[in-house]
Amino acid sequence: SFPIVVLISGSGSNLQALIDQSLQGQLNVNISAVISNKADAYGLERAKQAAIPTHTLDHKLFESREAFDAELQKIIDQYSPKLVVLAGFMRILTESFARHYEGRMLNIHPSLLPKFKGLDTHQRAIEANEKEHGVSVHFVSAELDAGAVIIQASTEISSNDTAESLGNKVHTLEHIIYPLAVKWFSEDRITFHDGKASFDQTVLPESGIR
Ligand code: GAR
Asked: Which residues bind (6R)-10-formyltetrahydrofolate (predicted)?
C-alpha cells in the first residue's frame, strides 16, 4: 500500500490518529517509519507499540540546519515514501529540504492559516479577541506555515476559554482532519501544481470543516 514517513517532536497524538485509522482500515497507508528529533518524544513509544520502525535524529548533534536536514533526508528516502507527514515536528526546514519534498510533504498547524503562523497560536488567538480558531493542514513550502492549505477545521472561542482548553478543542479537530487529508492525498484526490493545491470533485466539505 501507500508508504508514508511521519516526523514528530513530541506527544504524537496526530501520529496515533493515523495509526488508529490505518489499523481500522479507514486509511490505506503504510507508516514505514517514524522519525523524531527528540529522543524522549512520547510518539516514539506509540510507534514502537504499533511495530513501526523508529529513528531519533538529535538536531543538537549537527553543526548546521543544512547538515541536519541532509541526514534527515537520507533516512527518510531509505523508505521511498510517497508522502512525508509532519505531525508536531517542531523544526524550521531548509529551503533545499522543503524543495526536495515539494508537493509530497504535509504539515498540520494549529491555527486558521494565514492567521497565527509560528508558535503559541492558541494564546495569541485569545489575545487577539478572535471569535473562532482552528487548525490547518497544508503542503509544506520553504516559507514557514505558508504552503497551500488543503483543509481547515474551526471552533468557536468562548469567553472562558484558556490557551489549554482551546488547545484541547483544536487537538480533537486535528485528529479528524489530518487522517482525512492524508487519505485524500493517498487516493490521488489532492494534487499540487505551481504552489497550489487542487481537489477532485469528490472531496466535499463536511460540517465544521472547510
Ligand atoms: C499539534 O497541535 C500540531 O498542530 C502542532 O504541534 C502539535 C503536536 O501534537 N504543530 C505545530 O505547532 C507546528 N508548528 P501531537 O504531538 O500530539 O500530534
From this structure: 65, 90-93, 107
Question: Could you list the active site residues?
Answer: 109
- Retrieve residue 188's grid coordinates: 490521488
- Please name the residue whose Cα sits nearest to atom 14 of ligand 1: 109
Strand ranges (DSSP E) for 62-186?
Answer: 83-86, 105-109, 132-139, 149-156
Would you state the cell numbers that stand for residue 133, as one nine-digit string? 480558531
Closest CA to 21 of 198, 184, 136, 208: 184
**Residue 27 to residues 19, 20, 22, 66: CA-CA distances in angstroms?**
9, 9, 5, 33
CB count within 10 Å of CB 148 equals 18
**Which ligand 1 atom is the nearest neighbour of the CA of 16?**
18
pLDDT(17) > 80 = yes
Q: 10 Å Cβ neighbour count for 117?
A: 14
Residue 46 near residue 12 (C-beta atoms within 8 A): yes
Predicted complex: ipTM over 0.85: yes
Alpha-helical (H) ranges within 65-132 are 65-78, 95-100, 121-127
Query: For residue 107, what pLDDT is reported?
Result: 98
Give CA 110 to chain center in angstroms.
10
